[in-house]
């Protein structure tokens, strides 16, 4: 079972990964965006870590809901409301249980991913974060954390030949082809941090 501390460590590991990869995320956002994805997420996850340390929510659902609200209020770009919705809705789906199972986490993330699709109007294949998140949740349901991590990484890489149909990159039309999507890349970091946290706990 996974407790609030597990979820806090997941958010901290995501923040550390975003710090490590911020330059790369911003570089990916240069040719097909406005070169702010790394700094957007760095600002967001720095604020997430600070508020989780200060408020110390005592259930998995409360950790994710607070993290999501913090991303919505601190990240200006499109990715803030989208990631914020992912975590906030997943957190609400987990309710106030003190511990949750891996299957409950997978179901909650499915709810969150569906909410991201509803908010942004995107589907897999549109060259967005959903190209990493949807395969990751599919794999988490079937195969566990390590499978989710590799599904997210493959999903992010597979955005390169796609033409963007949502978000800023879609303004470029065919010129968006040939570049990996920054949001799918950061989603793979979020899922990799989950897998690392699970591995460290095992
Ligand atoms: P902005 O585009 O406002 O500068 P960011 O650079 O932080 O925001 O984030 C860009 C990422 O957000 C994209 O790479 C893409 O993955 C994701 N994104 C943008 N629009 C959507 C959408 N409608 N649905 C899902 N993801 C989206
Ligand atoms: Mg951007």
Automatic annotation (TrEMBL):
PROSITE patterns: DHAL. GO terms for molecular function: glycerone kinase activity. GO terms for cellular component: cytosol. Keywords: Kinase, Transferase. GO terms for biological process: glycerol catabolic process. Residues 5-196 form the DhaL domain. SUPFAM superfamilies: DhaL-like. It comes from the Bacteria. SMART domains: Dak2. InterPro entries: DhaK_L_YcgS (IPR012737), DhaL_dom (IPR004007), DhaL_dom_sf (IPR036117), Dihydroxyacetone_Kinase (IPR050861). This is Dihydroxyacetone kinase subunit L. It comes from Streptomyces xanthii.
């Amino acid at each position: 079972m996974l407790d609030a501390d597990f979820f806090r460590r997941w958010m901290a590991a995501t923040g550390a990964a975003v710090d490590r990869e911020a330059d790369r995320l911003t570089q990916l956002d240069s040719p097909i965006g406005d070169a702010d994805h790394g700094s957007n997420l760095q600002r967001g996850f720095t604020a997430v870590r600070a508020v989780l340390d200060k408020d110390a929510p005592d259930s998995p659902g409360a950790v994710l809901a607070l993290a999501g609200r913090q991303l919505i209020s601190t990240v200006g770009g499109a990715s803030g409301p989208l990631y914020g919705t992912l975590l906030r809705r997943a957190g609400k789906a987990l309710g106030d249980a003190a511990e949750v199972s891996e299957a409950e986490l997978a179901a909650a993330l499915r709810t969150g991913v569906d909410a991201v699709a509803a908010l942004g109007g995107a589907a897999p294949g549109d060259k967005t974060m959903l190209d990493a998140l949807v395969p990751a949740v599919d794999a988490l349901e079937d195969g566990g954390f390590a499978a989710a991590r590799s599904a997210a990484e493959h999903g992010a890489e597979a955005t390169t030949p796609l033409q963007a149909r949502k978000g800023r990159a879609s303004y470029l039309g065919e010129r968006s082809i040939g570049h990996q999507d920054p949001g799918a890349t950061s989603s793979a970091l979020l899922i990799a941090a989950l897998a690392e946290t699970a591995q460290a706990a095992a």
